[in-house]
From TrEMBL:
<comment type="subunit">
    <text>Homotetramer.</text>
</comment>
<protein>
    <submittedName>
        <fullName>GTP pyrophosphokinase</fullName>
    </submittedName>
</protein>
<keyword id="KW-0547">Nucleotide-binding</keyword>
<dbReference type="InterPro" id="IPR043519">
    <property type="entry name" value="NT_sf"/>
</dbReference>
<dbReference type="GO" id="GO:0005524">
    <property type="term" value="F:ATP binding"/>
</dbReference>
<dbReference type="GO" id="GO:0016301">
    <property type="term" value="F:kinase activity"/>
</dbReference>
<dbReference type="InterPro" id="IPR052366">
    <property type="entry name" value="GTP_Pyrophosphokinase"/>
</dbReference>
<keyword id="KW-0067">ATP-binding</keyword>
<feature type="domain" description="RelA/SpoT">
    <location>
        <begin position="44"/>
        <end position="165"/>
    </location>
</feature>
<keyword id="KW-0418">Kinase</keyword>
<dbReference type="Pfam" id="PF04607">
    <property type="entry name" value="RelA_SpoT"/>
</dbReference>
<dbReference type="InterPro" id="IPR007685">
    <property type="entry name" value="RelA_SpoT"/>
</dbReference>
<dbReference type="GO" id="GO:0015970">
    <property type="term" value="P:guanosine tetraphosphate biosynthetic process"/>
</dbReference>
<comment type="pathway">
    <text>Purine metabolism; ppGpp biosynthesis; ppGpp from GTP: step 1/2.</text>
</comment>
<keyword id="KW-0808">Transferase</keyword>
<comment type="similarity">
    <text>Belongs to the RelA/SpoT family.</text>
</comment>
Length: 211
C-alpha cells in the first residue's frame, strides 16, 4: 500500500515543486523591476496520507475519484504584504498558459464562519512523467501575512480541539480574525499615503530641476 501511495503522490510532489519554483521565479522578476514586489514568500506541500484518508471519509470520496474529487492534494501557499497584491497575483495567474484555472474561491470577500480569509485558486497543472503527461489538480492559497498568522494559529488549535472549539475561544478567534483584517486595511491605507507622498515628492523635485 505504501508503494501505491508513493506512486500516486509522485506527480503531486512534482507539481508542488514546479509551481513553488515558478512563483519564486515570478517574485524574482518583480524584484528586478525595482517596483513593489507582491510576493513575500512561497511554501508548498503534498497533503499527508493521513489527511487524505480523513478527507476521503469525511467527503465520501472513493479511491477511484480521488484525483478529481480532492483538489488540495498538491498545495502551494503564497504570502503577500497587501490585500491588493493578492488580486494582482490572481490576475497574473489568469494570464498564464502553464496552469489552467478551474475555480476561484474568494474567502476575503466572503470570509468563512471561522473568520478564515484567503484567496483560493484551483488549477489544472500538467506534469511530465516517465510515462507521459499527467494533469493534476493543485490548490494555490494566496493570503496576506496577517491572514497567514491567524490561519496558522487557528490551524494548530484545530488539532488540539478537533474543530470543536469552546464557545469563548471561537469568539476570540473570530475577533482576532477581524483584528488581523483591520491591520491589513490600515497597512493598505498607510501604503496609499506613502505612494501619494512619494508621487508628490517626485513632482516637487521635477519642478525644482526645471528652475
Ligand atoms: P491543510 O493542512 O492546510 O492542508 P475542506 O478541506 O473540506 O475544509 P474544501 O472545500 O475542500 O474544504 O476547501 P477549502 O475550504 O477551499 O480549503 C481547504 C483548505 O483551506 C484547508 O486545508 C486549509 O488550508 C484552508 N482553510 C479553510 N478553512 C480554514 C479555516 O477555517 N481555518 C484555517 N486555518 N484554514 C482553513 P486543510 O485540509 O484543512 O489543511
Amino acid at each position: 500500500m505504501e508503494k501505491e501511495w508513493t506512486r500516486f503522490l509522485l506527480p503531486y510532489e512534482q507539481a508542488v515543486s514546479e509551481l513553488t519554483a515558478k512563483f519564486l521565479a515570478l517574485k524574482e522578476q518583480y524584484v528586478i523591476t525595482k517596483k513593489h514586489v507582491p510576493i513575500e514568500f512561497v511554501i508548498g506541500r503534498v497533503k499527508p496520507v493521513a489527511s487524505i484518508l480523513e478527507k476521503m471519509e469525511r467527503r465520501h470520496i472513493a479511491w477511484g475519484e480521488l484525483a478529481q474529487g480532492m483538489e488540495d492534494i498538491a498545495g502551494v501557499r503564497i504570502m503577500c504584504q497587501f490585500v491588493a497584491d493578492i488580486y494582482q497575483l490572481v490576475e497574473v495567474m489568469r494570464q498564464r498558459k502553464d496552469m489552467h484555472i478551474i475555480e476561484e474561491r474568494d474567502y476575503i470577500a466572503n470570509k468563512k464562519a471561522s473568520g478564515y480569509r484567503s484567496y483560493h485558486v484551483i488549477v489544472e497543472y500538467p506534469v511530465e512523467m516517465l510515462t507521459g503527461r499527467k494533469t493534476v489538480l493543485a490548490e494555490i492559497q494566496i493570503r496576506t501575512l496577517a491572514m497567514n498568522f491567524w490561519a496558522t494559529i487557528e490551524h494548530s488549535l484545530n488539532y488540539k480541539y478537533q474543530g470543536v472549539f469552546p464557545q469563548e475561544l471561537k469568539q476570540r478567534l473570530q475577533g482576532a480574525a477581524e483584528a488581523a483584517f483591520r491591520l491589513d486595511q490600515e497597512m493598505s491605507a498607510i501604503r496609499e499615503e506613502i505612494k501619494e507622498a512619494q508621487e508628490a515628492f517626485s513632482y516637487y523635485r521635477h519642478n525644482e530641476k526645471k528652475k
